[in-house]
Every structure is written in structure tokens, then in C-alpha cells.
Specification:
Elements: H1 7-34, E1 54-56, E2 62-66, E3 73-75, E4 88-90, E5 95-99, E6 111-113, E7 118-121, E8 135-137, E9 161-163, E10 170-171, E11 185-187, E12 192-195, E13 208-210, E14 217-221, E15 233-235, E16 240-243, E17 256-258, E18 263-267, E19 280-282, E20 287-289, E21 300-302, H2 319-330, H3 335-340, E22 353-356, E23 359-364, E24 371-372, E25 386-388, E26 393-394, E27 410-412, E28 430-432, H4 449-471, H5 474-484, H6 488-500, H7 504-516, H8 521-527, H9 531-535, H10 540-556, H11 567-570, H12 572-578, H13 584-587, H14 597-613, H15 624-637, H16 657-668
Parallel strand pairs: 2-4, 3-5, 4-6, 5-7, 6-8, 8-9, 9-11, 10-12, 11-13, 12-14, 13-15, 14-16, 15-17, 16-18, 17-19, 18-20, 19-21, 23-25, 24-26, 25-27, 27-28
Antiparallel strand pairs: 1-2, 22-23
The protein binds 2-acetamido-2-deoxy-beta-D-glucopyranose (7 copies).
One 2-acetamido-2-deoxy-beta-D-glucopyranose (NAG) binds at residues 146, 170-171, 192, 194, 215-216.
Length: 686
């Protein structure tokens, strides 16, 4: 009979098994020799599978070593990697010392408990390749050399619990812990962990988060807690966490949150103390602001007496205080403000604010390293005269609500990182926006498709309009119009007739036309004999009015006067003034539909400026310097799409506004608006 073809395999398999089994015995024998006293029931004369606390499988492979609370000392074998069937290793509550043994590649290992010992180091890679590890506990080993949570544990996707409190862990918590699919428990209290809660914890299923009492202190904000909806117990006390307490109302299971002794600022969310499961909250020794939290469910609530609440009983703060806190909120509740802005009277010596009587009139937050945004709430402090926010790292845009501050004289936002369009402030406001490279970047880099080209068209028009009015050579503008609208001739005639009837508004347009010629002859001959426009005397305010009309035409794609429309729409200026902001998108030239939100902001600003320029009375009309302030950022960004006509009117539309102005100044010797604040002449139309 021929030998079975399976024989060699059988031989190899049995050999392998016996060799490994022998090596488990060798490792266990070494284990025994390292421990003092020998664990009870362990003896070199009996097979290790029979020792107390040792469990083996049917192949006599060791699967469990259970030696908790045996008063053992000594150091373990440096290498347990041959125990490849080991699943559970329990050595907690002894006095074991020396390095943590090498456990790498023990893919069956599920639970390791080394708590409460006297181990001295965690050598590199001892936790590498533990593919089945679920629970690793190494807390209360105070003599470990400083070590970090090993990146090797990223190979343990089944990890559900990592406990290393009081074990000399230092440096940052690694990001991968937040990416584990099910990881409910992290306990790192009483270490020297620093840095922030990893952003990967956003949305993680952690229930038990103990990061309290770090030697130097963890820092950063704790916003991420709001997204950790499985949280039950959060201990963050004795750290350097800052910023506000987030709204934890999605954390339905949270029963215990300890936040004392940090640098937390801002208003405590009113939802906190009414969370359904909450039993215990400690907020003592922070810089929390605003109303003192109420305690509707009568939980264990510790507030201490060193926070910055406005009053020492629950209830709303003074309205001026509330507004200043809104301003602080947009800045992320900086610690410097929280330290000074305490109590319920903003005029009782708060830093960065100046009062007149009981009113805050100046806010000076220059050079404070602030980030965040400018709160629209500034507008609620109606007596404000000056706001200094310069030389910080503020982002976002200047809220248009600030234009309603009637007493405002100075708004300095220079040297930040603001973007967006600049709202139209009254001419009386000295607005300083320099040093914000992104400000006025309306269209972004994404202008594409019809939106992009449509705004390009608008922009080309606006560029030309601004340049033209600045230079005072309006005829170019009309040339531009003639090239755009075939029926201009009829239109000018109508405007002219309208002007003759003494309607001041369109007379303004007509007079500009008149003065600079370049209009059909018949208009000129018909147009003589009436007021300003007949004599050709044009004032700056009239120019501004005409500019406003042109802007409206550009925005709506409509003529200043259109008899083909229903009566209430015939007169563009009158109609446009009645259009509410929310209706502007409908009023726009159809080629300007599909603008993105940012571009629409620019359009709103131009629309607002147009309305401002065409004010009924000349006095409220802004001067051109102001118009330029509004338009200049758009000019920088809004590049014409069609370039066919460039330079044909003596204007290269690719030039920046300042470049073009410079050229004109050299050509014509006029003073530009960039030399003096305002281009306007005091002279007024009657
Ligand atoms: C088994 O362990 C002994 C020492 O205990 C070692 O000399 C031997 O090389 C090991 N055998 C295998 C196959 O690893
Ligand atoms: C632990 O064991 C693995 C595999 O045997 C080895 O590659 C590694 O170098 C060992 N690490 C230490 C610190 O001994
Ligand atoms: C821990 O080990 C150190 C020496 O490394 C020793 O001085 C100390 O007594 C040990 N502590 C305990 C509780 O065994
Ligand atoms: C790991 O710990 C959790 C509780 O923290 C427990 O439910 C689970 O059974 C433990 N895993 C093992 C393998 O013991
Ligand atoms: C705490 O950790 C920092 C680094 O994060 C280190 O510089 C410092 O020495 C550590 N302190 C102690 C006592 O280990
Ligand atoms: C968490 O993630 C969500 C969505 O992924 C995001 O909106 C939120 O801003 C993140 N929170 C923090 C604090 O990073
Ligand atoms: C300014 O803000 C933008 C985002 O709005 C950011 O991409 C950029 O890095 C910031 N620049 C500076 C210098 O902080």
C-alpha cells in the first residue's frame, strides 16, 4: 500500500503543535521563576495547564493567565509573544515591576489588565499587532517612565476600552482613538496628557471620558462634546480647557459632568441643567459669564464663587451687558474679556470699553490676538461712537447692521482677515479696512457658468461706470451704453423730454449728457433752455445721482424710463426705490440670475448704493469717495468676461482701479480719491 499523501502534512502539523505547546510550557516556566513569592498552586513539577489561574485549550495552549491580587512582585518575562493562544491576561493589583512584557502579535489577546502595579516602562512596540484586543487597562502604575498612547493600538480595531489613569502618560491623545468603531471608554485621569481633545472624537460613541487632573493640563475648546451623543460621564476637571460650554442637549444619557478648574468662558447653555439624565454638574473655578444657571431639576450643581456670572442669582443680565456678551460670543469668548467683563454694569470699569454716563461709546479691542467674527450685535449699542477692532485675526465680513449706528464716527477693522463686501456707511463714518487682503472678494474663485459671465457683464459695466464718473468724462459711459443698448437714441430723447417737464431726477441724467456732448444732435437742440441741464452747470451731487441711475440700469437691465411698462414701473428710479431687499433677485436683469450667495451680497451692496445715490434730496446723497469705497473692492474682484472692447474707450478694463486712476491723474492732473479722503466738493445743487 502506498503511503498516504496526507502523511507529511499530518507529521508537520503534529510536530508544530507539540513544539508550540512545549514552548508555552517553557514560557510559563520562566514566568514562574520571575515571580516572588511563587503564585499559590504553581509548581515547576506540574504541567502549567494545571496551575491555578491558568486555562488552556484542547491543544494545551495557554488561553488565560489570571493572577489578580496575589501580592506578587518581581518582573515578568520580557517576552510573552510565544503564547499565541493567550486571550486574557489579568495581573492587576500586585506589585509587579520592570518593563511591560512584549505582547506584540498576540492576535488572540482580548483583554489585558495590568492595573495597580509598579511597572517601570512601556517598551516600544509591545502592543503592536494586537488585532483582537478589546480592553487594555494599565492604570495606577505611577513609576512608569513617561510614555505616550502607542500609535500601534491603531491596529486594534476592536478596542472598546483604554484605561491608563495615573500612569505617567504624556503628550497628546492620538487621533485614531476617535476613529475606532466602538470605543465607549477612555480613562486617562491623573497623567501629563496635553493638547486638545482630538477632533476625531466628533461623533464618536465614547460614553465614559475621564481626562481630569492633567499635570500641565489639556487645552483647547470642548465644542466636540456636543456631537458625542453617547456620553454618560465626562470628567474634564483640572485642565486648561477654554471657550464656552457647548449645547449638550443631544447628550441624552449624560448624568455626570465635571468641568471645574478650567478656563471655560461664555454663557452656560440654558439647556445644560435641564438635561434629562443629569445628576451632577460642577462648574466651579472657571470664567463663565452671563446669567447664573438655574437649577430646575434640583440636581447636584456646584458653581463656586469664582466664575464671572453677571449676578449672583439666576436671571437675565443688564441689556448692555447682554449685548457685550454677544460681541464676545462672536469672538469665541476670549479669556481676557471674561476676566474683566464681570458683574452687571459694563460701565463699572470693564476694560476695552469706554462709557459716557451709562452708555458704552467706545470699544477698543485692537491688538488682542482675537479671532472669530464681528457681531452684528454692535448695532444694539446705539450710542457707540468708535469701534476699534484693528490688528487681530478676525474673519467673516463687516455686518451691515453697523451702518445703522447713527453716532458712529470711527470703525477701524484694519489688519485682520476680513472678507466679503463692505456695507455702505454714511459719509460721516471714518471706515478703515486696509490690511484685509480678502475684503471685497465678492465672486470668489468659483465664478463659472452663466452666473460668472453674467456678473462679468455687470462688472464690466460697473468698472466702466466707476472709472468714468471718477474721471469726470461721462461721455465714455454713454458710449458704453450706446454699444450695449440699440435703442438709446429714443431713450435719451425721452429723458430729455422728461427733463423739460422739470422732473429733477431725470433732468440730472440729462444734464450730464448735455454737458459732455456725445449725444445725438437732436437731443442737444431740444434740450436747451431749462435750469442746470440747459446751462450745462452740473454739480457733484447731480453726478452722483446720475451714477445711481446708471447702477440701477446695470442691475435691472432696464431703461431709466420705459413707457412700454405698467405705470408704476415706468420710472426706474421711483420703482427701484420701492423694491425691498428680498425682492431684489426678482428685479435683476435676467442675465444676472443664478448668482451665488456671495455675488448676491455684492449686488445688494450695489443696489443699496444706487438707492443712496438717488436720494430725493441732494444732501443725503453720498460723495463719490464713498461710492468708490463701496465699489472698489468689487472692481478688484469682478473682472469683465468679454474683453472685445477693451481699451476702445481709452479704458483698459483689466487695469485695477488704482492703476487706472493713476493713469488718469498723470494724463489730466486731477486729484484722486486715494490722495484725499473724499472726492466731493462742498458745492451743492439747489
Ligand atoms: C521553543 O523555546 C525554546 C526555548 O524555550 C527555544 O530554544 C526554541 O527555539 C523554541 N522553538 C521554537 C520552534 O520556537
Ligand atoms: C516584540 O516582539 C516582536 C515580535 O516578536 C519583535 O519584532 C519586537 O522587536 C519585540 N519588541 C521588543 C521591545 O522586544
Ligand atoms: C515601586 O518600585 C520602586 C523602585 O522602582 C520602589 O522604590 C517602590 O517601593 C515600589 N513601590 C511598590 C508599591 O512596590
Ligand atoms: C471589555 O470591557 C467591557 C466593559 O468595559 C466588557 O463589557 C467586555 O466584556 C470586556 N471584554 C472582555 C474581552 O473582557
Ligand atoms: C509633562 O509633559 C511635558 C510635555 O508634554 C513635558 O515637557 C514635561 O516635562 C512633563 N512633566 C513631567 C513632570 O513629566
Ligand atoms: C463635528 O462634525 C460636524 C459634521 O461632521 C460638524 O458640523 C461640526 O462642526 C463638527 N464639530 C466640531 C466641534 O468640530
Ligand atoms: C484668511 O482667511 C481665509 C479663510 O477665510 C484662510 O483661508 C486664510 O488662510 C486666512 N489667512 C490668514 C493669513 O490667516
Amino acid at each position: 500500500m502506498p503511503p498516504s499523501p496526507f502523511l507529511p502534512i499530518l507529521l508537520v502539523t503534529s510536530c508544530y503543535t507539540s513544539i508550540v505547546a512545549a514552548n508555552d510550557s517553557a514560557t510559563m516556566a520562566e514566568f514562574l521563576t520571575t515571580l516572588t513569592p511563587p503564585p499559590s498552586g504553581w509548581s515547576s513539577s506540574t504541567p502549567s495547564c494545571t496551575w491555578k489561574g491558568i486555562t488552556c485549550d484542547s491543544s494545551r495552549r495557554v488561553t488565560t493567565i489570571s493572577l489578580a491580587s496575589q501580592s506578587l512582585s518581581g518582573s515578568l518575562p520580557s517576552d510573552l509573544t510565544s503564547l499565541t493562544s493567550l486571550r486574557l491576561l489579568y495581573l492587576q493589583r500586585n506589585a509587579l515591576s520592570g518593563p511591560i512584557p512584549n505582547l506584540s502579535s498576540l492576535v488572540s489577546l482580548q483583554e489585558v489588565n495590568l492595573d495597580n502595579n509598579n511597572f517601570t516602562s512601556v517598551p516600544a512596540s509591545v502592543f503592536k499587532g494586537l488585532a483582537g484586543l478589546q480592553n487594555l487597562s494599565i492604570s495606577n502604575n505611577p513609576n512608569l517612565l513617561p510614555w505616550t498612547i502607542p500609535a500601534d493600538l491603531a491596529d486594534s480595531p476592536a478596542l472598546v476600552s483604554l484605561q491608563a489613569a495615573g500612569s505617567n502618560v504624556f503628550r497628546m491623545i492620538p487621533e485614531f482613538l476617535g476613529s475606532l468603531s466602538s470605543f465607549p471608554s477612555l480613562r486617562l485621569s491623573y497623567n501629563n496628557v496635553s493638547g486638545p481633545i482630538p477632533s476625531s472624537f466628533n461623533g464618536s460613541g465614547i460614553q465614559n471620558l475621564w481626562l481630569n487632573n492633567q499635570l500641565i493640563g489639556m487645552d483647547g475648546r470642548i465644542d466636540v462634546l456636543a456631537s458625542m451623543t453617547q456620553l454618560q460621564q465626562v470628567w474634564l476637571h483640572m485642565n486648561k480647557f477654554s471657550g464656552p460650554i457647548p449645547d449638550l442637549s443631544s447628550c441624552h444619557s449624560l448624568f455626570d459632568i465635571q468641568l471645574r478648574d478650567n478656563d471655560l468662558t461664555g454663557i452656560v447653555p440654558s439647556t445644560l441643567t435641564s438635561l434629562p439624565s443629569l445628576v451632577s454638574v460642577n462648574l466651579d473655578s472657571n470664567k463663565l459669564q452671563g446669567p447664573m444657571p438655574d437649577n430646575p431639576r434640583n440636581i447636584k450643581l456646584i458653581l463656586g464663587d469664582s466664575n464671572s456670572f453677571c449676578r449672583d442669582v439666576p436671571g437675565p443680565c443688564d441689556s448692555q451687558v447682554t449685548t457685550l456678551l454677544e460681541i464676545a460670543a462672536a469672538l469665541g469668548y476670549p479669556l481676557t474679556l471674561a476676566e474683566s467683563w464681570t458683574g452687571n454694569d459694563a460701565c463699572a470699569g470693564w476694560t476695552y470699553v469706554t462709557c459716557q454716563g451709562k452708555d458704552v461709546i467706545v470699544i477698543t479691542l485692537s491688538k488682542q490676538g482675537l479671532w472669530g467674527t464681528i457681531s452684528p450685535a454692535f448695532a444694539k449699542l446705539t450710542p457707540l461712537k468708535s469701534i476699534y477692532l484693528n490688528d487681530n485675526d478676525l474673519t467673516g465680513s463687516i455686518p451691515s447692521s453697523l451702518t445703522t449706528l447713527t453716532q458712529l464716527q470711527t470703525l477701524d477693522v484694519s489688519n485682520n482677515n476680513l472678507s466679503g463686501s463692505v456695507p455702505t456707511f454714511p459719509p460721516s463714518v471714518s471706515l478703515i479696512t486696509s490690511g484685509n487682503p480678502l475684503i471685497g472678494k465678492i465672486l470668489g474663485d468659483r465664478s463659472s457658468g452663466s452666473g460668472g459671465s453674467a456678473s462679468g457683464g455687470l462688472v464690466a459695466g460697473v468698472v466702466v461706470a466707476v472709472l468714468v464718473l471718477l474721471g469726470g468724462i461721462q461721455f465714455v459711459l454713454y458710449k458704453y451704453y450706446f454699444s450695449k443698448r440699440r435703442n438709446m437714441k429714443r431713450r435719451w430723447t425721452r429723458i430729455n423730454e422728461h427733463g423739460k417737464q422739470g422732473r429733477v431726477n431725470d433732468r440730472a441724467v440729462a444734464s450730464s449728457v448735455n454737458q459732455y456732448g456725445e449725444i445725438p444732435d437732436e437731443m442737444l437742440s431740444e434740450g436747451s433752455g431749462q435750469g442746470d441741464y440747459a446751462t450745462g452747470r452740473v454739480t457733484t451731487k447731480v453726478d452722483v445721482y446720475a451714477f445711481g441711475v446708471v447702477l440701477m440700469e446695470l442691475l435691472t437691465g432696464r431703461k431709466a424710463l420705459d413707457d412700454s411698462l405698467p405705470d408704476e414701473m415706468t420710472h426706474l428710479v421711483a420703482w427701484f426705490r420701492r423694491v425691498k431687499k428680498e425682492d431684489i433677485p426678482k428685479a435683476l436683469d435676467p442675465t444676472l440670475s443664478h448668482l451665488d450667495e456671495e455675488s448676491m451680497e455684492g449686488v445688494y451692496n450695489v443696489a443699496e448704493l444706487a438707492g443712496h445715490c438717488t436720494a430725493r434730496e441732494p444732501n443725503p446723497r453720498p460723495d463719490m469717495g464713498h461710492a468708490v469705497n463701496v465699489m472698489a473692492p468689487l472692481v478688484e474682484e469682478w473682472k469683465p468676461v468679454a474683453r472685445a472692447d477693451e481699451d476702445s474707450y481709452g479704458i483698459n478694463v483689466n487695469m485695477s482701479l488704482p492703476q487706472a486712476l493713476e493713469r488718469w491723474q498723470t494724463d489730466e492732473g486731477i486729484t484722486g480719491i486715494f490722495d484725499s479722503v473724499s472726492y466731493s466738493h462742498p458745492e451743492r445743487s439747489r
